[in-house]
Amino acid sequence: MALLALDQVTFTYSGAEAPAIDGVTLAFPPGSYTLIAGLSGCGKTTLLRALKTPLAPAGRWEGAVRCDGVPLAEIPLRDQARRIGFVMQEPDAQIVCDSVEAELAFGLENVGAPREVIGLKVAEMASFFGIQPWLCCRTACLSGGQKQLLNLAAVLALGPEVLVLDEPTSQLDPLAADEFLAAVRRVNRELGVTVVMAEHRLEGTLADADQLAVLEDGRVAAAGEPRAVAAQLCAADSPMAAALPAALRVWAAVEGTGNCAPEAGSLPPLTVREGRAWLGARERGHAAGGAPEGILSSPAAGSGSMGASDAAYAPAPCGGSGSGASGPAALRLRDVWFRYEREAPDVLRGFSLDVRAGSVTALIGANGAGKSTVLRAACGLARPYRGSVEVLGQRLRRRGAAPAAGPVALLPQDPTLLFSRETVREELADGGPDARDAEALSLRTRSVEAASASASAVAEIAALCAIEPLMDVHPLDLSGGERQRVALAKVLLARPRLLLLDEPGKGVDAAFKAELGALLRQVAAQGAAVLIASHDLDFCARWADETALVFDGAVAAAAPPRALFARADFYTTAASRMARGIIPDAVTVEDIVEACRREGE
Amino acid sequence: MRSHPGLALAYFACVIGITMVVASPVFAGISLAGAALAALAARGRAALPGLGASVVLVVFVTAVNPLFNTAGSTVLLQVFGRPYTAEALLFGAVLAAQLAASLLWFSAAGRALTPEKATYLFGGAAPALSAVLTLVVRLVPAYGRRARAAAEARDAMGCGPASAHGMVGKARAGATVLAALTAWSLEQGVTTADSLAARGFGTGRRTVWGRYRLTVRAGLAMAALVALLALVGVGLAAGAGGAQFLPQFALPAASPLVAAAWAAWAALVIAPTLVGAGEEALWRCSLSTR
Question: What are phi and psi of A29, to 5 degrees?
């Protein structure tokens, strides 16, 4: 019998026309690992909240949710707290206590566990998750990844049979997210806890899962064995396909097109390892069958011969190498040194970089390398103590003048920071200095003209960012991706000539990431310079003109993404890791597919 | 701090209570000296700004009191045609010392009684109250950080407080940041409430857990605290806390009982400093034995 089961569950928010989830039937057997995928706003959160009575939203529920055959509503709340663990998106807001130790004990205190048991469980959890080094820290001092790990540990201290996670990594940077997902995998594999997780990042998780359920508009579009469901998604050209692992996308594009006969009994690859095995076998098969030479080189020739093979095939839509490098420098940092406090270590140590107008430049690198600080220096929030920062040919002064504004705009990691109004429309009207100037102008003379000009600008930007249907919604009622869109629109309204974005792909689904990339290219095409700080290598490889690897406060390597990622062995895209040594210089999924097609012809 | 929360609470409640209630130059002076030493022992140089502020407070209250209170027989000078008397000056000094000592003791209690210890003490009796306390302790600094982040984010767009012009502009920019903060905190509150509910808060009797045990050492300390308090209490009953200000200042006669009460009070307020110093010495000894 399934541990948890949803039977024809339909839910309609009070006052809403359409149901948020519609006739969902799913079962989660004991010890299983289920991934719930779907675009933002497809009902994932509502579905997960149905699995725990105190969290279920108010409205009209139909159908039955059963735990071990017993209707969930009949299980006392105290037992539900013990048996069903729930981890939400926000790492910070879920923490209740001031110290890590107290937070671990909090759930057990609530259910009235004996003191000896609490002491044991706290010790166990701290050891299992490696929390001991920061056990005595204030919770406010932890990093986002540590906070979310603490939330997981605090829930597991209760010894639940089921762990429900609602996009737990959406607020984390990719490295912390990978660590968190590894912890979830351990909980499933080593403790046998049933896992039900909604997640955007399928690259690292799909291979661990036993079941993949895809939601579309509140209905289960597909559910079952991950490989089968994933292959089905690719075949149907679903918008969810972009979120699937690179190996699977390549496989589906190559095997599915019918250019070459699919090998009998071959399973779609999910991981880089499986992808390499499949690609290698495919190449050997073609070599034996007398495939045309030159495209698939031998593994040894892999990374050395990039210059020659660059011309072998035209780059896929990936940002053209060198095409945007001709514009004038919009931002020029020269030998910049910066530290946050007098006694603190240097964050930037002789950092130099040029960002050209009309191009998209991406800063990549690990946490704490100084990426965000570079963005802060570019907009005058961080004043370097040595070196110079020139924005549009004008040097930022070290003290005195207010931070640069107008031509420079920064989209912070958390877009919610920019929101202060009741509706999106008001939010956009309360834009940057342009809006203020227009307001001042309208007070004096050409009121009608100025007002209509700003209104048309709002309409234009709203169309560009595809937020027209959201104009009368409260900004905080929006989903993560929608917030990012509105914040971007707000920033773009200031008509920046230098646009800075800090981790723009955080917490948004794959479909929106592609839209965002296209949008940034459009902004750059209009002559602005775009500088992104990101951990998302696939995003940078696909959309940037230039990439700079930031390490220890300086640029360790700077080149167009194709060159940089083709040279790197570890710190590179999944597609590049998969094709390394088999297809030279393939950096994106499209590159590999292109190479395979050419070879098939 | 390794002290048991109950011991720390009892100690600070007694010391602060006596400091506030007993208006005697001897008690107030000893208390202020003890509090200052405890702050120095615990925080070193970092305690100096706070102590400096206490000195300013004491001087100010002492100097100002005679302006409002003209009682006393020893007139020092005439201010605005009113007598400025030595007795009033002294009374102001006692008042000021009580005030400054209480403030210093409160900050010491805040350092020793961390939020966990407070919840440990009160969590059993009032779980809802202690949960609110813990959340407030977390929220206040979180608000500050969030406000700074929001102000910076808006500054980077050129519409934040730093780039606003004039008083009105700055006030308006500040109000916008505040509005953003309010909406954000409501949203966070919903998540926190869900997190409380998901982990079974309010589903019945609660355990209070803490890694504090009543050891023999804590018992001895408690016994010493009770003994010293008893001595102080007996002394206070015998008039050790009294002081005559009008018409002329006079301390009670130093009978053995009164002197013993003063000594006990001094021992009580110096205790945290001595414990700290003792541990420091022990640490050095145990280091040098290696």
Answer: -65, 160
Ramachandran category for residue A552: left, alpha or beta (phi over 0 → left; psi -120 to 50 → alpha): left
Per-residue pLDDT at A319:
42
Residue of B nearest to A108 (CA): B207
Q: Would you call A409 and B142 a contact, using CB atoms and an 8 Å cutoff?
A: no
Asked whether the predicted pLDDT for residue A28 surpasses 70, the reply is yes
Question: Does B97 reside within a domain?
Answer: yes
Q: Half-sphere exposure of residue A220, counting CA atoms within 13 Å on the CB side?
A: 20
Contact between chains at A436 and B135 (C-beta distance less than 8 A)? no
Query: Predicted ipTM?
Result: 0.80
pLDDT winner (highest mean) among A100-104, A315-319, A397-401:
A100-104
Are the C-beta atoms of residues A408 and A500 closer than 8 Å to each other? yes
* Both tokens assigned to B60: 């100010």
- Read off the pLDDT of each residue in A82-89 and give the average, rounded to a whole number: 94
pLDDT-wise least confident of A81-95, B163-177, B247-261? B163-177
Query: E-assigned strands of A152-205?
Result: 162-166, 194-198
* Cβ–Cβ contact B280 with A under 8 A: no
Q: How many CB pairs under 8 A join A and B?
A: 183
Q: Which CATH number fits domain A322-407+496-559: 3.20.20.140, 3.40.50.300, 1.10.760.10, 3.30.1490.20?
A: 3.40.50.300
Q: Which letter, b or e, does each residue of A62-83 get, where b requires 16 or more Cβ atoms within 10 Å of its Cβ?
A: eeebbbeeeebeebebbebbbb
Task: Indicate if the pLDDT at residue A292 is higher than 60.
Answer: no
β-strand pairing of B82-85 with B75-79: antiparallel
In a domain, B211, yes or no: no
Interface membership of B131 toward A (CB under 8 Å):
yes
Tell me the average pLDDT across B144-150: 89
Residues B231 and B249 in one domain: yes
Domain range A4-235, CATH class: alpha beta
If one compares A442 and A193, the residue with the highest pLDDT of the two is A193
CA distance A310 to A308: 6
B214 in contact with A at a CB cutoff of 8 Å? no
**CB A95 within 8 Å of CB B187:** no
The Cα–Cα gap between A133 and A560 comes to 40
A154 burial level (CB within 10 Å; 0-12, 13-18, 19+): buried
Residue of A nearest to B134 (CA): A97
Q: B109 and B228 share a domain?
A: yes
What is the structure's pLDDT at A494? 82
- Asked if B107 has any chain A CB less than 8 Å from its own CB, the reply is no
Please answer yes or no on whether A114 and B207 come within 8 Å at the CB atom: yes
Q: What percent of chain B has pLDDT over 70?
A: 97
List, for residues A333-354, the tens digit of each pLDDT value: 999 999 888 888 899 999 999 9
Quote the CA–CA distance of A27 and A29 in Å, as a whole number.
6
Amino acid (1-letter code) at residue A5:
A
